[in-house]
Design goal:
- About 60% of the residues lie in helices and about 0% in strands.
- It is built from eleven helices and two strands, in the order ααβαααααβαααα.
- The protein has a two-stranded parallel ribbon with strand order 1-2.
- α7 packs antiparallel against α9, α7 runs antiparallel to α11 and α9 runs parallel beside α11.
- The N and C termini lie far apart (about 50 Å).
């Protein structure tokens, strides 16, 4: 029976190249990516909360469907709900070329503007929860900060879908393991489900948000920058 010695273990140079590639891309323009993502979130929330607290038209309550009644309130779903703010950084984190980052940022910003225009033209809200959430960690703050307005389309869902489509495209082009790609899809689905499980959105909000995210993600891929010395893909 052969004896396995420490020298038989694969060296760092023999380990899968995809790990090194992920690390390289994550480090590249790290400060710019971090500042850009944080700045984007900051500007978005300024506009979002202004419309939430100052609707210019009567607010319409979204109808509840059978699917909404089927899904119970699940406080643990707050974790995947909040994880969106980590998930949305994956796609830009995988990019190298500056113009790809700029184009991506402009497209996701355009998607958010489209959603905010919907909130401006037709303010919507989700029926309030018929239970006391003060005993659940994080929910009192969530209800106080992010009320159940600006419901349709769900920009939470739209952002998750937009990100998932781009992450799938990037991972496939980079020939990353299928496990990473499947993990991204499952993460996206968990975020989408969480919006209904914590009763921040109803099914119609989710459908509208998914459609919005898909349209803008596919448009961004269709008209992405091509060629040039700094082209990434």
């Amino acid at each position: 029976m052969p004896v396995i010695r420490k020298t038989d273990r694969p060296s760092s140079s023999q380990r899968p190249a995809w790990r090194a590639e992920l690390a390289r891309r994550s480090r590249h323009r790290f400060v710019l990516k971090t500042v850009g993502i944080c700045g984007f979130i900051w500007v978005f929330f300024i506009c979002y909360f202004h419309l939430l607290r100052n609707p210019v038209h009567p607010v319409t309550a979204m109808p509840v469907t059978a699917l909404d009644r089927l899904i119970p309130f699940q406080p643990q779903a707050l974790i995947p709900y909040l994880s969106l703010w980590i998930y949305l950084g994956i796609a830009p984190g995988l990019m190298l070329a500056l113009r790809d980052l700029v184009a991506y940022g402009l497209w996701i910003a355009a998607m958010c503007v489209a959603g905010l225009l919907c909130f401006y033209a037709l303010p919507t809200t989700v029926p309030p929860l018929e239970l006391d959430v003060s005993g659940y960690a994080g929910f009192a703050m969530l209800q106080g900060v992010d009320a159940n307005g600006n419901a349709c389309p769900s920009l939470h869902v739209a952002t998750a879908i937009f990100t998932a489509i781009w992450v799938e495209y990037l991972l496939r082009r980079l020939q990353m393991p299928w496990g990473l790609r499947a993990g991204s899809v499952l993460w996206c689905l968990a975020i989408v489900y969480s919006t209904m499980a914590i009763k921040q959105h109803v099914a119609l909000d989710v459908l509208a948000g998914a459609a919005l995210g898909t349209v803008f993600a596919m448009a961004a891929l269709r008209w992405r920058p091509r060629g040039g010395a700094d082209a990434d893909f």
